[in-house]
Amino acid sequence: MLKKCLTVLSITTLTAALSACGGSTQTTGSSSSPSATTAATASAAVNAQKPEFKALLQYGRFDPNTEVVAKFLNEKTGYKVTYDMLPVENPDDKLNLLMANKEQYAFMLLTGLQYSKLASSGALEPIDELVNKYGTNMKSVISQNSWNGAKLNGKIYGIPQTGSGTVVSSSLIVRQDWMDELGLKAPTTRDELYMVMKTIKEKKNVMALSGGKSPLLPEIMPTFGLTMVQSTLTTGWQDVSGKLVNAVENPNMKTYLAFMKKLYSEKLIDQEWSLNQPNKVIENFTSGKTAIISNGYFNAPIVQTALVKNTPNAKVASLPYLKGDDGKVQVMASAGINYYVGIPKWAEKKEDIIKYLDLKLDKEIHKEASIGKEGVHHKVENGNYFPILPIFNDQYNNASSFLTGVDEKNYPIYWQARVRKDPILTEAFNKNQEAAKGNTVVDPLAFAPPLEAIGKNSLKLQKLMEDTFLKYITGAEPLENYDKFLAQWKADGGDDMTKAANEWYAANKK
Questions:
Q1: Please, which residues bridge with residue 441 across strands?
Q2: What's the CA gap between 245 and 240, in Å, rounded?
Q3: Distance between alpha carbon 280 and the CA centroid of its chain, in Å?
Q4: How buried is residue 172: exposed, middle or buried, by Cβ count under 10 Å (0-12/13-18/19+)?
Q5: Residue 508 has what pLDDT?
Q6: Which of 32, 118, 394, 448 stands 20 to 30 A from 66 (CA)?
Q7: Is the pLDDT of residue 264 over 80?
Q8: What pTM does this model have?
Q9: Which residue did the predictor score with more confidence, 395 or 46?
Q10: pLDDT tens digits for 77-111?
Q11: Rounded mean pLDDT of 398-420?
């Protein structure tokens, strides 16, 4: 995408430009009330004196400057904002270059790692005082938990942005027509799942479970007491007697891997697990090569459409979340801070920037920027928001890219309009949430700020973990070497991550 280089116009420049255009607020006539033309001109003059901003967003496959939401925000707030995006490839390198050149962005939407690095390098402005003075809306709708998650060395360098609330994304889905044919009941425990898989393989001559790349299956791990939440930023943490322990240090991890190795050796799971990309897993299911996969609700329409196209009488069902060895159901859910909105240290008019970002969180502006106008883009039924199609998709499909913090109470309710765009999607989402209700587990670091030791080590340690665990499952390396892996994990940064995680947790846990 071509980047537009825009300078931030000063009030003096804007005033001069208005004079050149012949703008005037003088009127004739004896009436003491201003005419409609006069009022409109006066309003335009006020708005014209608000500075123009340039903002930096994460990558998206659209031009943000042509979006309905961008135009709505400009019109409603009186601030004109233009947007650049980071590239899809090497975004961090590009961000570093922009910061080295002191590019004149008013604000930037940053990942946790980007936020941590820029703040620690002195590239971001501490905004505590500005928020206290001008952030009336944001202080009201953003929780203290989230603000705490933006603190680095005692200062806040960005507005924390959460999203859809606590959401359960995936479940095991099964060919229900095969289950019916074989007279099988939905399993409720790991042992029952094993028997279902064994029967399907023997009777239907297909692989029972397909998967890919990650050795960690979120629907089976909790049955071993491994309630970690996968993330690109952490390899998974659990509260054990008030302290955080990484899941790789949980003795049950070795037991989980032994179970997965058993499934692999009995050819109950995909023999190409370590090679499969997500699209290949879906293809295996929809083409009839496998009976069960772990599937995100967001993929439900694709899976259903492709399966019925290939096998018109096929049926899909979600399996129940399984009980663990203690008889309890635990389901991993996602929550927490997705992005941070930072202001470069060298940005001009920082007070106006905070005023603008706060104005975006005005209840009505925030709602319309999120899901559009009622009766045009969405409708409300029994307190639930439903999209009006196709205009919602046409004009608000990319609306979340313009968020700079959310109303944490109401936005998760607005957001559900997005999963009501397709009845299959809606059903899959609702089934997951209902089946997991009362049994969800959230990452204890979900609202932690980006911790330096984790940011530095997590990606390489996650790769070490995934590569090694896949070797254990496929038999390429003996599971007896687990202690050797664990020693390497600790020495290569795992101990540093655990120390940092517990220091934050001890200071912030409730």
A1: 332
A2: 6
A3: 23
A4: buried
A5: 87
A6: 118
A7: yes
A8: 0.84
A9: 395
A10: 999 999 999 999 999 999 999 999 999 999 999 99
A11: 97
Residue 143 Rama label (left phi>0; alpha psi -120 to 50; beta): beta
Question: Nearest to residue 341, comparing CAs of 328, 321, 357?
Answer: 357
d(CA 188, CA 190): 7
Q: Which two tokens stand for residue 142?
A: 């953003």
d(CA 152, CA 383): 38
Answer yes or no: are the C-beta atoms of 184 and 158 closer than 8 Å: no
Side chain identity at residue 488, one-letter code: Q
Token digits of residue 35: 């005419």
Tokens of 167: 């959401």
Strands (E), 193-255: 207-210, 237-240, 243-246
What is the DSSP-derived secondary structure letter of residue 35?
Answer: P
What whole-number distance in Å separates Cα of residue 291 and Cα of residue 201? 9
Distance CA 482, CA 472 (A): 9
Report the pLDDT averaged over residues 309-337. 96
Residue 32 has pLDDT above 70, yes or no: no
Average of pLDDT values for 202-216? 94
* Per-residue pLDDT, 234: 52
Phi, psi at residue 159, to the nearest 5°?
-80, 125
Joined together, the tokens standing for residue 204 give: 């239907």
Q: Letter for the amino acid at 446?
A: A
Q: For residue 242, what are the contacts with CB-CB under 8 A and spacing of at least 6?
A: 509
Q: Residue 330 corresponds to which tokens in the numbers above?
A: 């635990």
User: Residue 174 is inside which H or E element, if any?
Assistant: strand 170-175
78 Rama sector, left if φ>0, alpha if ψ -120 to 50, beta otherwise: left
Q: What is the DSSP string of 100-124?
A: HTT---SEEEE-HHHHHHHHHTT-B
What pLDDT, on a 0 to 100 scale, did the predictor assign at position 235? 59
Q: What is the rounded average pLDDT of the residues 249-268?
A: 97
Task: Report the C-alpha gap between 414 and 422 in whole angstroms.
Answer: 16
Three-point CA angle 444, 339, 433, nearest 5°: 55
- At 305, the amino acid letter reads T
Q: DSSP per residue over 43-80, as a string?
A: HHHHHHTSPPEEEEE---SS-GGG-HHHHHHHHHHS--
Q: Which token pair is 82? A: 């233009």
Q: What is the distance between the terminal CA atoms of the chain, rounded to a whole angstrom? A: 45
- Residue matched to tokens 């705490």: 148
Distance CA 46, CA 179 (A): 67
For 115, how many CA atoms within 13 A lie in the half-sphere containing its CB? 31
Distance, CA of 89 to CA of 423 (rounded, Å): 34
CA 397, 400, 403, 406 torsion: positive or negative? positive
Quick one: pLDDT at residue 509? 82
- Token look-up 């992005």 returns 339
Q: Residues of the chain with pLDDT > 90: what percent?
A: 84
